[in-house]
């Protein structure tokens, strides 16, 4: 991104290949420090999309960036869903699960969200930095047990999950936050349907909740077309 000389805009890049890295960690720290400095007279505008979990890593000590990468990799290899991965990420992060919004209080927070998750669960998209988490520590342990990774976790992860540090963000005040979904699977499908009909095509919206392996889903749709 090219900026004009003396621009007040600051660009912080990181999370190459959608993996949290040291650059993303430094960017997250800068963003959280900015949020902490805001007052009731300020407005924090937050733009959220898929990939936000990797772009805003802020592990709760003693969890390190490497520890979070390890647990994410372990669960992904076992077939964990994005909902399950982000449930764990929220519990191990200072910024996710509403953390960013809480640090910005008492400033007003307006979050514009592009959803990449089926059903648009706001606390799962980018792990919900401006949304109260709907999950508990017990939910995390159930996920870890489900994929049989409890014995291979970094010790720091168990320390955080077992401590009182991980409190339910649902107990906190979010009256200063407004979350708005400005793009989603449903909105994209409806837009494509409208455009196709204007071009004279007969359209049917089969579902906005299809998930799974791409090749399997593609094969299913090809069978529908043949009939």
From TrEMBL:
<dbReference type="InterPro" id="IPR039760">
    <property type="entry name" value="MOFRL_protein"/>
</dbReference>
<keyword id="KW-0067">ATP-binding</keyword>
<comment type="similarity">
    <text>Belongs to the glycerate kinase type-2 family.</text>
</comment>
<dbReference type="GO" id="GO:0005794">
    <property type="term" value="C:Golgi apparatus"/>
</dbReference>
<dbReference type="InterPro" id="IPR038614">
    <property type="entry name" value="GK_N_sf"/>
</dbReference>
<keyword id="KW-0808">Transferase</keyword>
<feature type="domain" description="MOFRL-associated">
    <location>
        <begin position="5"/>
        <end position="161"/>
    </location>
</feature>
<keyword id="KW-0547">Nucleotide-binding</keyword>
<protein>
    <recommendedName>
        <fullName>Glycerate kinase</fullName>
        <ecNumber>2.7.1.31</ecNumber>
    </recommendedName>
</protein>
<dbReference type="Pfam" id="PF13660">
    <property type="entry name" value="DUF4147"/>
</dbReference>
<dbReference type="GO" id="GO:0005524">
    <property type="term" value="F:ATP binding"/>
</dbReference>
<dbReference type="InterPro" id="IPR025286">
    <property type="entry name" value="MOFRL_assoc_dom"/>
</dbReference>
<dbReference type="GO" id="GO:0008887">
    <property type="term" value="F:glycerate kinase activity"/>
</dbReference>
<dbReference type="GO" id="GO:0005829">
    <property type="term" value="C:cytosol"/>
</dbReference>
<keyword id="KW-0418">Kinase</keyword>
């Amino acid at each position: 991104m090219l900026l004009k000389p003396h621009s007040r805009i600051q660009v912080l890049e990181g999370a190459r290949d959608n993996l949290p890295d040291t650059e993303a960690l430094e960017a997250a720290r800068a963003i959280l420090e900015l949020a902490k400095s805001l007052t009731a007279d300020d407005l924090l505008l937050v733009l959220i999309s898929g990939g936000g979990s990797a772009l805003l890593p802020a592990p709760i000590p003693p969890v390190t960036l490497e520890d979070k990468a390890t647990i994410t990799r372990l669960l992904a290899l076992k077939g964990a869903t994005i909902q399950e991965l982000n449930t764990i990420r929220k519990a191990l992060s200072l910024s996710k699960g509403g953390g960013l919004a809480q640090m910005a209080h008492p400033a007003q927070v307006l979050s514009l969200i592009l959803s990449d998750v089926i059903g648009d669960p706001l606390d799962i998209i980018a792990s919900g930095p401006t949304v109260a988490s709907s999950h508990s520590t017990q939910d995390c342990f159930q996920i870890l047990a489900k994929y049989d990774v409890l014995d291979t976790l970094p010790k720091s992860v168990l320390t955080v999950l077992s401590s009182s540090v991980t409190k339910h963000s649902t107990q906190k005040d979010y009256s200063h936050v407004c979350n708005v979904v400005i793009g989603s699977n449903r909105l994209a499908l409806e837009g494509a349907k409208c455009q196709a009909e204007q071009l004279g095509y007969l359209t049917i919206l089969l579902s906005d909740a299809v998930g799974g392996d791409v090749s399997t889903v593609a094969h299913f749709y090809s069978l529908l077309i043949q009939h």
